[in-house]
């Protein structure tokens, strides 16, 4: 027993050390881990949060971009995730970023080790499985895209299933509570879509095991398929009605088939309700406020089917899971990717041994309920990942809530890979020579056909997958296809040799020491995945050097006005925010939908500067004082005719937008607004409109003057008519993330306009009395003033956030209360 406990400790220590080795070249050199999303915006907005927390003010609003956006309820990453929230108080943000991947690689390995140990009762096999999952390509290479939220979700998947399985076996509620805590932490990563997939699979896991174990009818395992078909049929009437029919059918059909209600069903489904309740109680601190923001968010809007199937996995990427490099890679200066995904910055290769053993588990004729479950999960997750490549995805899209708000169905592929890894551990536990032989034959045949008949694959893929690309991209990808078909041959031969050796060892040397065999497989798995993933782990200089201030920033900082800047092809998206300069652009997963309408880009969640080139009045209302562009010569003398024409075109373009050249830097220049509109101003009349489109129809008129009147949406505000010219004075402006105060003295009833984004989370008081927050000029804030002195305070309400935090705390207390009660009952029973 002591030897076994010692082995546990040794394996867990190894799992903790290995991520430090992987990320040591970044972590121990004082550099920053590169990630595309990270460097363009995530670092800067999280640094903004960290700086405010360190100064004793938790920022619920970020005024630095998009005319303002919520933080806690605006999908701002890990803002309430306890591990990183705590570490933010002690560790520089860029070091914490690298540590996040170190910590969660370990959590992924630990969870897999515990879960596989529970399934196989073999520590050596479990260690192999944990190495395979924590260093699988989908976890290691997500660093390059800057997707820490995805990695956090992936890391908690094994722990969630582990605690659920313990609860199922031992019939204890508190294990379901611990699973709920793990799932709640997963949701607090901020990546809703991946977390949602895990929640669905988790509920399916226990209910499937329950039906398989506790009901006896031979058709019991067809319950889900029948229920799914019924749900889809009724979803033609209503999605939520169809989903309800699906859930009820899962509950009822096993009872009908057995003609008997198993009493364990009540306990199982109450346990799953407790698990789900605990999950949402714990993550309430973030998701209750998000529910307030969601109707206004760009991603909160239901999209069409084509949106939901965008960024799906392609069939070439499936072959790439067997032979890394088949569909190419896209990392750094190396761009050989030719698959169907328009923008792929990771790889999903799990290792050839995992593919070999996992496929053998799928092919096994005699299956346990666990093998059946993970086989089904493998195929379900693959169908979803392929999106519109198969007709089946539409049924999921029709039936399950929120599928119509997601895109990039390939994000579910980590569940597919985890299923393969668990199937591999179960295959090693109970070797079946026949399934190993078939698996070896299938992989070998696939590899040899690629080597011997590359033109066949070139013909299939070049004809069918490039219809949506431009001619230039299409030709580039066809060239990449030819290159990859040739370069992958060596990999194929090596992989076939590896699985031949593994097959030989498992089937011909049955008396071989399993410890050394599994240790060898674990080492090979580690080094193989490191070899194929190391190029995705890139270091860049620390933020002080990487985001070094230039002369453009220095010049803008001389301006004492409260203003915004419109950067065009300048720096990283949020670069200016790092120096306290507000912008109308930025990098964010889900800006306000109406803001996207205002900036003339409603079909996207991204910012596109070109959509505003002909919207002069909108730029004025966005409080833009400076426009940044690459340096444009003032004098065209000496340039070729084509270059002169281009210079003249852009000079005229920016002049028509209302800007004149102001400051020339080394590579970039500033244009200054010829009619700058201050952040706060007062008008004495208004017009009413029904919605933002009505407001924009007025704003886009050439004679529109925002200083003359406010465009008020759906308001009962009224102003007394006074035959006197408006006169006002604004003083004592105090501008912070959560609170803005100022004093306005005016000679008549009027409306104060504040050119920050309107949002229902904001309150306003005038002379310490609550007043109605007005939505003016499409997306901005306003408030009615009386004649005389008006002390105006805009404050972001923290009530909902505090209430949500209390609910989350209650969820944790509830779990440990259940744990205490059940443990005490067990002790009394003993």
TrEMBL record:
<feature type="transmembrane region" description="Helical">
    <location>
        <begin position="268"/>
        <end position="288"/>
    </location>
</feature>
<feature type="transmembrane region" description="Helical">
    <location>
        <begin position="173"/>
        <end position="189"/>
    </location>
</feature>
<keyword id="KW-0812">Transmembrane</keyword>
<feature type="transmembrane region" description="Helical">
    <location>
        <begin position="309"/>
        <end position="327"/>
    </location>
</feature>
<feature type="transmembrane region" description="Helical">
    <location>
        <begin position="438"/>
        <end position="457"/>
    </location>
</feature>
<feature type="transmembrane region" description="Helical">
    <location>
        <begin position="94"/>
        <end position="115"/>
    </location>
</feature>
<feature type="transmembrane region" description="Helical">
    <location>
        <begin position="195"/>
        <end position="211"/>
    </location>
</feature>
<dbReference type="InterPro" id="IPR018580">
    <property type="entry name" value="Uncharacterised_YfhO"/>
</dbReference>
<keyword id="KW-0472">Membrane</keyword>
<dbReference type="Pfam" id="PF09586">
    <property type="entry name" value="YfhO"/>
</dbReference>
<feature type="transmembrane region" description="Helical">
    <location>
        <begin position="487"/>
        <end position="506"/>
    </location>
</feature>
<feature type="transmembrane region" description="Helical">
    <location>
        <begin position="151"/>
        <end position="168"/>
    </location>
</feature>
<feature type="transmembrane region" description="Helical">
    <location>
        <begin position="515"/>
        <end position="533"/>
    </location>
</feature>
<protein>
    <recommendedName>
        <fullName>YfhO family protein</fullName>
    </recommendedName>
</protein>
<keyword id="KW-1133">Transmembrane helix</keyword>
<feature type="transmembrane region" description="Helical">
    <location>
        <begin position="347"/>
        <end position="363"/>
    </location>
</feature>
<feature type="transmembrane region" description="Helical">
    <location>
        <begin position="127"/>
        <end position="145"/>
    </location>
</feature>
<feature type="transmembrane region" description="Helical">
    <location>
        <begin position="12"/>
        <end position="34"/>
    </location>
</feature>
<feature type="transmembrane region" description="Helical">
    <location>
        <begin position="223"/>
        <end position="256"/>
    </location>
</feature>
<feature type="transmembrane region" description="Helical">
    <location>
        <begin position="800"/>
        <end position="821"/>
    </location>
</feature>
<feature type="transmembrane region" description="Helical">
    <location>
        <begin position="408"/>
        <end position="426"/>
    </location>
</feature>
<feature type="transmembrane region" description="Helical">
    <location>
        <begin position="370"/>
        <end position="388"/>
    </location>
</feature>
